[in-house]
Amino acid sequence: MLHALEFEAMVESVAILLGKHDYAAFAGRAGKQKGNTVRTITRADQVKEGERCDIQGRANDFLPHQVRHIVGTLV
Predict the structure, then answer these.
(1) In what order do the strands lie in the sheet with 19-22?
(2) CA 41 to each of CA 3, 16, 19, 51, 62: distance values in angstroms, whole numbers, following the listed order
(3) Is residue 61 within 8 Å of 35, Cβ to Cβ?
């Protein structure tokens, strides 16, 4: 059974990710092997159109699979 996304909860959760944090928990294996997993997310926007939800972000750098894991966690 599919459930509707809780868009407002996603917006609130993304706000927590803004700023400088250690994103090791969201990195793939290759990202963790890089050593430094601290990144700064400076912007994250969510747009809902009907049943579609787009998320756009800006950071100083992203770890491999970081965005995929963040979006999967939000969903």
Answers:
(1) 19-22, 38-49, 52-59
(2) 29, 10, 5, 26, 9
(3) no
Q: What is the pLDDT of residues 7-55, one digit of tens each?
A: 889 889 999 999 999 999 998 776 666 678 999 999 998 888 887 888 8
Angle between helices 7-17 and 66-74 (to 10 degrees): 140
Distance, CA of 75 to chain centre: 10
DSSP assignment letter at 34: T
d(C-alpha 34, C-alpha 24), whole Å: 10
Please choose, from the candidates 42, 43, 41, 50, the residue with its C-alpha nearest in 3D space to the C-alpha of residue 7. Answer: 50
Per the DSSP assignment, residues forming a β-bridge with 19 are 41
